[in-house]
Design a protein that fits this description.
Helices cover 26% and strands 32% of the residues. It has four helices and ten strands. The chain is globular. The termini are far apart. It has a six-stranded mixed β-sheet with strand order 4-1-5-6-7-8, with helices on both faces. It has a two-stranded antiparallel sheet with strand order 2-3. The chain has a single domain, classed as L-asparaginase, N-terminal domain (Rossmann fold, 3-Layer(aba) Sandwich), CATH 3.40.50.1170. The relative contact order is 0.19. The protein is an alpha/beta fold and 161 residues long.
Amino acid sequence: MRIRVITAGGTIDKVYFDDASTFNVGDPQVGPLFKEANVTFDYVVESVMQKDSLHMTDEDRALIRARVAAAPENLILITHGTDTMTATAAHLTGLPGKVIVFTGSMVPARFRQTDAFFNLGCAVGALQVLPPGVYIAMNGRVFPATEVKKNRAESRFEPKA
């Protein structure tokens, strides 16, 4: 099994930047997290951009789609900011033969109390059992990308009503 991880930035990769509690998106953290978890599957990490998802454009989403389409792997994990994850996921529908799972975190991976490890593990498990399509793995659940929304007040993803 080989997974292509495409990183787009977001909170999962954020670093503390200054005394004013400002954050910047840093280097992708999925590689170090996989090493720490001692994973036994083959993977490649491709950093496509380092953006807060609130700053992503349709051109950014088109670039992510092009990179997914060009990937030789059929199992694609995308780390992405949670604010516009569903918008980017919508741009990836219709890619035949690919299992695409988006994940991210509400707290930076570099923080001791983060959901990044859990969300990545859930996403990797989902990649191995789901049929081709686009999904979001957050908060211990896996959703078809078109059937989920972010509940900002509760800091979680949940089914659309």
